[in-house]
Amino acid sequence: MFIACNTRVCEGYFSRYPTKRLIWPSYMKDREGFKKHLINFLKNNDIDITLGLGDISADILSKNRGEISKYTRLTVPEYSKFLQVTDKLSLMQYCMDNSIPCPETYSLERNADIEKDERLQYPLIIKPRRGIGAIGVQKIQNPRLLKQKLDGYIEKYGPLLMQEYIPQDGGMQYQAEAFLDHESNMKVCMVIEKPRFFPIDGGTSTANITVDKPEIVQICKKLLEGIGWIGAADVDLILDPRTNVVKVLEINPRVTAGIKIGFAAGIDYADLHIKFANGEDIPEIENYTLGVYSRNIFMDVLWYIFATKSMRKNTHPPFFSFFGKNTVDQTISLDDPLAGLGFFLNMSRKYLNINYLKEKIGSST
Predict the structure, then answer these.
(1) Backbone angles phi, psi at 18, to 5 degrees
(2) CB 302 within 8 A of CB 268
């Protein structure tokens, strides 16, 4: 197994499993440089399957699918499908048009008459139409503030959308790790409850637990099969406490860290990718172990630091539940201990950057 990183300070580079570690340009900072390294490497090496583990790397694979697939097998869909789900406005519009529950969502233009726009009530959420994680997501309390900040947000993040705000209190978030075959039949859908995340008002999950939610499976089936998706898809959803309806927030069109809990729950996602890449039938998997608890201890500590006393008291599983049957860490394991160290060093460098931390936790305006 070969792995490409943009720095030696990361979990992949520290892991004992790669047979070769490559240092390439960062696809965040030099997309074209990364693509050139990738294609040149694939031309000169016999690589069976190539997976994108980040939003941008998956985008590069999908956008250049025709050329890259000459040298390796891919599990990403064609680019038109990829864009349909990564453009959050397009995805929400599809949901609204097809009676799939989601927050009300509309385009937000630079010259919009904000004070007269009555489509959404305040507070509301604005976010980039295409973005990574919680970066650029802002909670806006009133039209005056939105009018003041709109031009600056557009300059910084590009095209924006505005979205109905769903209260966090009582609004549990969920994640569905789905896998579809080449005919867009959903074969797997593991549902994860996300009791904690960072930033605390909406971001990356820090704790996950497998649950049985047939209604979420049906929502994902209608959405993903309707779009015509293939391969892996990670659907993020939230329970609206005002209506008790689970609503779609976004789709991450790639392999995500959520599959770690999948392996612990009895679903071999690696085997699904291999079968898909080789054109084999994808088995239908309906059952998985419930109550498997997975956490990202580094991110969970950040949650604990910024959480209120009430949040700490009411979270379940408890924050200090470190051991037990069916409990795993997302990055730390006894069979590959240095990967956890690499992750810790990488995240320390990332989150101890004051400007980055301010952007991550300063999403409420």
Answers:
(1) -60, 140
(2) no
Q: What does pTM read for this prediction?
A: 0.88
Closest Cα to residue 231, out of 78, 71, 102, 56? 78
Report how many domains make up the chain: 3
Rounded-to-integer distance, Cα 6 and Cα 26, Å: 5
| Per-residue confidence band for 365, with pLDDT thresholds at 50, 70 and 90 | very low
Q: Is 329:340 a contact under the CB 8 Å cutoff?
A: yes
Quote the CA–CA distance of 55 and 27 in Å, as a whole number. Answer: 10
Specify whether 150 is located in the same domain as 280.
no
Q: What is the DSSP string of 236-254?
A: EEEEETTTTEEEEEEEE-S
Is beta strand 293-295 parallel, antiparallel or unpaired with respect to 327-329? parallel
**Are 283 and 143 contained in the same domain?**
no
Q: What is the DSSP string of 30-76?
A: -HHHHHHHHHHHHHHS--SB----SHHHHHHHHHTHHHHTTTSB---
Residue 177 CA: distances (Å) to CA of 186, 192, 358: 11, 8, 30
